[in-house]
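subagent[fold] <- orchestrator: predict structure for attached chain, return tokens only, no commentary.
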Amino acid sequence: MSRRRDDYESSWWRRFKSWVDGETDLLAEGMEIRIPQVPGDGNGETKQPGSQARQAGTDGETRQLGSQAYQAGADDGKDRPPHLFYESRGIRWFRRFYQVMSVLLCLSIIFVLLWTIACLPAIGNAGNPDNNEVSARYIEKGLQETGAVNIVTGMILDYRAFDTFGESCVLFIASCCVLVLLRIDAKDGDIQTRKRLEMADDRRFEPKEDIILQKCACVLVPLILVFGIYIVLNGHLSPGGGFSGGAVLGSGLILYLNAFGFQKTERFFTEKIYRRITLCALTFYCMAKSYSFFTGANHLKSGIPLGTPGTILSSGLILPLNICVGLVVACTMYAFYALFRKGGM
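subagent[fold] -> orchestrator:
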């Protein structure tokens, strides 16, 4: 059995292993000043050369004294000061390698984009993809196969419903990223975090109880929500659909929030409701189109009636899919606004 080295605790491998295991955070240590301890002069006291250096008023003396502290305590198994770690040869080489790889990656992306543009077919060529039988199929048999009077809605929610599902997932992922970056959580935070959340909570820099804004919102918000619902439900009959109708619904929620604040808005729309609505909408969309694609690929009857073209209850799954997309878009717009303004929902 091999014997552990005496300086194992201060070695590079030990620091790297502790960082991988989550015991220490090297990046956090590099952003704060840690005062190295120097053995005392025999009177039981411990000197603080970093404090003495700051009193001297120069960063150079702080670095020099920190280096002396590390040399004095290296034999005792003490940790290496953070600034010495970031000035090591391995870190310098890693930074150079990172910069070179970043430049190479950017140049590679530029080359691929230019090469793709150079290989695009000429405009107006008869062999281009936009002149094949796919577009003719959408126009000639779209109403018969999808039941949607609006050809565009029938295309994006039936023929190409998988692409639309990807776009809805992109909206959900974007809202999750904004939630991770901008959310202020006061449950586990300190007093300063709670004060910051209270300051941003309810229109600190806006006129509170603005009677003009509230009266206008009382008139406009119901009309906006009804109009957004109309656009969503008639997406398969007229221009509109889930994306445009969801944007109108989201604008209505934002107007209500500006007029009455977070406290009243959270009575009917909270973060828990947002998560449930988004999850249920995306799950239903995925399951419904998976069933439709499975039956269509195997030439099986789906059993979903297309209804009478031109009526509200027609076009098979397009109507419920429009509702799902509209809910996701509305929730995403409201979540973006609430997170950028308050750091929470």
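orchestrator: received. Logging for downstream: The radius of gyration is 31 Å. The chain has 14 helices and no strands.
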